[in-house]
Amino acid sequence: MGAAVELEVGERTVRLSSPDKIYFPERGFTKLDLAQYYIAVGEGIIRALRDRPTALERYPEGLAGESFFQKRAPKNHPDWIPTSTISFPSGRTADEFCPTEAAAVVWAAQFATFTFHPWPVRRHDLDHPDELRIDLDPQPGTDFSDARRAAHELRSVLDEFGGLRGWPKTSGGRGLHVFVPIEPRWTFTEVRRAAIACGRELERRMPGRVTTAWWKEERGERIFVDYNQTARDRTIASAYSVRAHPRAQVSAPLCWEELDTAAPADFDIASMPVRFAARGDVHVDMDDHAFRLDALIELADRQERDGGLGDLPYPPEHPKMPGEPTRVQPSRARHKAEPGA
């Protein structure tokens, strides 16, 4: 695997063992390649992660091996990497990794962390998200081009309801994410309600192309607006995170103007450093903005009052919430309701 190397990352020195270990067999990318990638985009990924409780998606044997999510900060983490005690829907708590500098990301790469999953909160206020995150997830029969069309319409929805501005990025796979920086004054429940309102407005504007249906059997060949990615303890891969893809693709921040020509395969751990060196972080100004959700909350109120559209199901690990509909799969519910079932 080769002798360990020491990497200079800002003012830190990070030791990397087994630097020649292959992590992405199809491309031949190694642990050292992964670490050097994160050094190259360090300013960008720290902008996305700074002070956020972050779960680590780790692949100790590389892409071909087993993987796991690590929500609790590794016990051996350096004392210069802060943590924060977060609460899960179950009531349990954990101290989570909160990166504040690029060296923390490279340190995590030493332990085979490919993808970083930050909460939409900062460690000084763990109950009020400062980002509204919209996940446009292509279902079977749809692809990135369908997500692209939905993203353009979403941009119009955001602008119409409160003059909101979203920053788009590839998921690293077939989907798109749009993040809106918001004032940290709304709860997770309220932010989730705003996401549902966005999704329903997209459904209305793009019938047959977009859905908020939680149950897969009801989604069809449509783009799913995964509103539950805004629920507590649900996270989305950060900008610049490496994804578990044979080509080592990354979640790439985009400008709206380049969305029509961009493709997920354009961005990987070899090409992104070149782009970053030439253009920097195209989402660098996100932290200069903080929008209000009043108009989307009012939209949710109208959807419920005029259309009878209340809450939608939560993820299975969440406790039953007030006003939440049944979590029984529709086909199973129909079967139980049939005579003699």
Overall shape: globular
Helix content, binned percent: 25-40%
User: What is the number of strand segments?
Assistant: 14
Order of helices and strands: EEEEHHEEEEHEEHEEHEHEHHH
Largest sheet: 5 strands, mixed
Strand percent estimate: 15-25%
Mean model confidence by pLDDT: 96
Rg over CA atoms = 20 Å
How far do the termini sit from each other?
Answer: 60 Å
Count of helical regions: 9
Unreliable spans are: none
Helix/strand/pairing category: alpha+beta
Strand order of the largest sheet: 11-12-10-14-13
Descriptive report:
42% of the residues are buried. The longest helix has 18 residues, at 188-205. The mean pLDDT is 96. This protein starts with a strand and ends with a helix. The protein is α+β, with helices and mostly antiparallel strands. The strands form five sheets. A five-stranded mixed β-sheet has the order 11-12-10-14-13. The protein has helices at 31-40, 42-49, 102-110, 144-160, 188-205, 216-219, 271-279, 294-307, 330-337, and strands at 5-9, 12-16, 22-24, 29-30, 54-58, 68-70, 83-87, 93-97, 113-118, 131-138, 167-170, 176-181, 210-211, 223-225.
